[in-house]
Amino acid sequence: MIDPHVHLRDWAQKEKETVAHGLKVAKMAGIERVFDMPNTNPPLVERETILDRLALGTGEARKLKMSYSVYAGLTKDPEQIKAMVLLHSELFPLVVALKMFLSHSTGNMGIVDYEEQRNVIRTLSEADYKGVLAVHAEKESLNNMKLEDPDDYSSHSSARPRESEIESVRDIIRLVKEEKFPGHLHICHISTKDAVLEVMKAKEEGLSISMGATPHHALLTLDDARDGKRGLKMNPPLRSEEDRAFIYESLKNGTIDNVESDHAPHTLEDKEKGASGIPCFSGMLLLYHKLKEDGVDKERLLDLFGRNVIKTYGLKDEDVRLPDDSEKLFTRLSESYPIRPFEWI
Q: Which of 155, 278, 152, 171 has its CA nearest to residue 217?
């Protein structure tokens, strides 16, 4: 399998997880290629930091016979954006794509102002960037953290409401059209029915766009988040049963392009303080099992768990292998992190 969306921590966050540990658990789950997100500490927004991260990640991956790539993070600075475009051109597929946060999440890399987002897209267009731009789509102005109850993780869904994602997806689609962005837009961890419909509409209009969904948004709802022991707080949050069911069905019928874990571990202490993110390699196995159990054929499973990622990101063809005993692997993985967000179905 390929997991195009992981947060492996390390460096100043090594108490949460090291790259070596994350890759070991991913390999155990049957994942053979990962793309690491740039909101590390320090963030992956400069050449030397990215080279250091690649040295660490590729070195550990080589021991496990895996492949490791990173996203280069974008800032508001046009010169930084141009430098990341050049680095992508130079080091692809090690630098597999660029990543833009349209709101603040873990790492506070958000570019939240609409005109500043436009300037980023315009700079990418002027630089003739034809690679993938992956985005975290939430609209900061529609979030209201005053609605969050620290003793009830389900309240996170009110603080970062579904309208935040929907409007952000509309914004970024509008911007890439208006600025004639020559690359490919990927919407990460899509969580709402209406956002999926917006991407479907853009596809029908000929836009080069794709979307990924996580195991937690496909399998869990905000009602699950009320069980504080499972640590079910993440960005974007868990949604209603209607949204969850639509995400799941969109994976089954191939409307959503790929599965991505958004694996993002924290210490128990950090979770108790309200950190967003969950360990999710076990969720990949659970979702695979559920889809297979529900009759999704092998060809679609291969697309969802790897082949569509290869197409979207322009990678060389490679064999995608699916796990043989997902239940047994799930049990082994459940012991790898102090938080266990998923329960075997």
A: 278
One digit per residue, the tens of pLDDT, for the chain of length 345 reads 999 999 999 999 999 999 999 999 999 999 999 999 999 999 999 999 999 999 999 999 999 999 999 999 999 999 999 999 999 999 999 999 999 999 998 878 999 999 999 999 999 999 999 999 999 999 999 999 999 999 999 999 999 999 999 999 999 999 999 999 999 999 999 999 999 999 999 999 999 999 999 999 999 999 999 988 899 999 999 999 999 999 999 999 999 999 999 999 999 999 999 999 999 999 999 999 999 999 999 999 999 999 999 999 999 998 999 999 899 899 888 889 999 999 987
Active site residues: 262
Q: How far apart are CA 91 and CA 70, in angstroms?
A: 10
Those residues with Cβ within 8 angstroms of residue 106's Cβ, 6 or more apart along the chain or in another chain: 7, 39, 235, 264, 275, 276, 277
Q: Is the peptide bond before 236 cis (omega within 30 degrees of 0)?
A: yes
